[in-house]
Specification:
The complex is a heterodimer of chains A (about 300) and B (about 300).
Chain A lengths: L2 E3 L5 E3 L6 H10 L1 H23 L31 H37 L1 H15 L3 H12 L3 H28 L2 H8 L4 H37 L11 H9 L6 H29 L7
Antiparallel strand pairs in A: 1-2
Helix pairs in contact in A: 1-10, 2-3, 2-10, 3-4, 3-6, 3-8, 3-10, 4-6, 5-6, 6-8, 8-9, 8-10, 9-10
Chain B lengths: L2 H30 L4 H6 L5 H11 L5 H13 L13 H36 L4 H15 L2 H15 L11 H31 L2 H8 L4 H38 L5 H10 L3 H29 L7
Helix pairs in contact in B: 1-12, 5-6, 5-8, 5-10, 5-12, 6-8, 7-8, 7-10, 8-10, 9-10, 10-11, 10-12, 11-12
Chain lengths: ~300, ~300
């Protein structure tokens, strides 16, 4: 990290956060990241156009056509209630993406401010926060989400709360580390020396530098959150039926595995592709935001 | 006292408050649910006498600190209460399932470490080769695949179609193959990635160049000079993986009808059997904390440069 004196004589942070255009250009040249973005774009477009493209209602049961194999009328087959699986998988993207985005937003909303205060402030506040984080990390991640859902009960909001709270400690750790290293920089000392208010230092110098790792972490975390939520759904502890959610569909499908392989297979493909896309994009963003690393 | 044993004591001393914190979380967990804690713990079908008994046991009229102290006291004596469903002692319920889960976690850790290390070494020594790309692609799939879906797909191929392996249940070696592979997949991928990047870093070090220059054979350079020094981040990852593995075990056990603690927990959550939920969560947290402790102590053994001040 470097500092430079501007012509006005004030110390300003060197642009540790690369300029946005540069990041996007590097990201565009990153082949695997582009592939990840393309997969995600395809999912988003399919979900948005779903009402126009698909003839069925995701929750419309039809007992004349239960457990039908994939065919022209039902490209991915039908489930035990005769619902069209393609429709449910596409609408399931809405539910899974929504849960993922909200859960990550919740984690970040808790983790970023707490992490910044903990790392920048230091002292007793930091020690207290770190003890709580240690405590939360004493529970393996998925177990923490599962424990929370056992207290809160099932439903979309509770899945978001459980997954979001369970991943908050990771954010606190990450942001604290960055804030800690920035707090000891010369330009922070300089800003203090010329009387810049603490709140302004945090806003202008600490937060922007925390942003790149938070963006990378959030992208990777989106995949992880969708995976965790699907895991809860698979155990029957996710959203309430009949809401089409990939994990729940998969769990229901396992019952019919011996006769109807397609019910459990396709929602799993959707989860797999989504999580992989977020992982590819996250890795790409990390490379793009950290120019010292080589392009993959 | 040597500095090493001092370090061990200090590190154990740090783990104890965490464990007490864990008991506090587990205690408060039930109190956060709206309603009468005695009735929540007794379960839905409990008789009024049963609820009264538990209310007396909990001492709900006492200050919350006293209630917590009694909770910890009973726990230290091995009394985790009775299951609200089976009425059997929770400790007994857990005892029955400790072995299947332990064996599954152990076999998966061994497979994940062996395969992950081997794949990482192959990838690093042949950087940018077809093999390297192949390993890294498979690893990417490994970190993205839902563990329960992988289990179901393996079951579909090897049990439903090929009839090679049992589709679930607990028994001989054949029953271990699919659950172990399923549970190990994610860890294999993570360990392979970490081994590769960690090894590639040590390849650039002076001592590796020196060893090569003085004519040490390639396998010896890789294993004795490079890998040994790449071990610290790898051990960290193996340790961290253990937590992921315990979480994955819950899903794997449910997929394969494995009679372990994970399935016990899921069934308990579905039945709102809070004494069992508390007991299993406690056991998982204790095991995880102890493993983390063991990993920290292992650093001291692997890397003599670490100071234990």
């Amino acid at each position: 990290m470097s500092t430079r004196a501007s012509t006005t004589g004030r110390w300003v942070a060197a642009p540790l956060v690369p300029r946005r255009a540069g990041v996007l250009r590097r990201l565009g040249r990153h082949r695997t990241a582009t592939a990840g973005a393309a997969i995600l774009a395809a999912f988003v477009i399919a979900t948005l156009l779903a009402p126009l493209l698909l003839r069925h209602d995701p929750n419309e049961a039809n007992f004349d056509r239960v457990l039908q194999r994939p065919s022209a009328a039902h490209p991915l087959g039908t489930d035990q209630l005769g619902r069209d699986l393609l429709t449910r998988v596409v609408y399931g993207a809405r539910v899974s993406f929504l849960i993922g985005i909200l859960a990550v937003a919740l984690s970040a909303a808790i983790g970023v401010p707490v992490g910044v205060i903990s790392g920048y402030q230091g002292g007793r506040v930091d020690i207290a926060v770190q003890r709580v984080v240690d405590l939360m990390l004493a529970f393996p991640g998925f177990l923490l989400a599962l424990t929370l859902i056992s207290v809160l009960g099932v439903g979309v909001i509770n899945v978001v709360a459980s997954v979001g709270l369970a991943t908050a400690p990771t954010y606190i750790r990450l942001v604290r580390g960055v804030a800690l290293s920035i707090a000891s920089q010369v330009y922070i000392e300089a800003a203090r020396a010329v009387g810049v208010p603490e709140a302004r230092i945090v806003r202008r110098h600490v937060l922007p530098n925390c942003l790149p790792p938070v963006i990378v972490q959030s992208t990777l975390q989106l995949g992880a959150a969708i995976l965790t939520a699907a895991g809860l759904g698979f155990l029957g502890l996710g959203v309430r039926p009949p809401t089409p959610e990939w994990g729940t569909m998969l769990g229901e499908g396992q019952t019919y595995l011996f006769s109807s392989w397609y019910i459990a297979t396709f929602p799993g493909v959707a989860i797999f592709l989504t999580v992989m896309a977020f992982n590819l994009l996250g890795d790409g963003l990390r490379d793009a935001l950290d120019p010292r690393m080589k392009l993959g | 006292m040597s500095s090493l044993s001092h370090y061990v004591l200090r590190r154990v001393g740090l783990a104890l408050p965490t464990l007490f914190g864990v008991t506090l979380v587990i205690f408060l967990m039930v109190r956060l649910i709206p309603g009468d804690p005695a009735r929540i713990i007794a379960g839905v079908q409990a008789s009024d006498e049963e609820v009264t008994r538990i209310r007396r046991e909990l001492g709900v009229d006492r200050p919350i600190a006293v209630q917590y102290a009694r909770f910890v006291g009973r726990m230290l004596r091995g009394d985790l209460g009775l299951s609200a469903v089976t009425r059997a002692p929770v400790l007994e319920e857990i005892g029955l399932r400790l072995r299947p889960t332990g064996l599954l976690a152990l076999s998966s850790t061994v497979v994940a470490t062996a395969v992950g290390l081997a794949a990482g070494i192959v990838s690093a020594t042949r950087q940018y080769s077809v093999l390297d790309y192949l390993v890294m692609t498979v690893a990417l799939c490994g970190v993205s695949i839902p563990v329960f879906w992988l289990g179901i797909m393996l079951m579909l191929v090897f049990s439903v179609h090929l009839h090679w392996l049992p589709a679930g249940g607990y028994g001989g070696a054949a029953h271990f193959v699919l659950p172990t592979l399923t549970l190990a997949a994610f860890s294999i991928a993570i360990i392979a990635r970490m081994t590769r990047s960690s090894l590639l870093e040590t390849f650039n070090q002076d001592y590796v160049r020196t060893a090569r220059a003085k004519g040490v054979r390639r396998p010896a350079v890789i294993l004795r000079h490079a890998l040994k020094n790449a071990l610290i981040p790898i051990i960290t990852v193996v340790g961290l993986q253990f937590g992921v593995l315990l979480g994955g075990a819950i899903l794997t056990e449910t997929t394969f009808a494995w009679p372990g603690m994970g399935r016990l927990l899921v069934n308990a959550i579905t039945a709102r059997d809070y004494p069992v939920i508390q007991g299993v969560v406690l056991t998982f947290a204790v095991v995880f904390t102890v493993v983390n402790l063991a990993v920290d102590l292992l650093y001291a053994y692997v890397d003599p440069r670490i100071h234990y001040g």
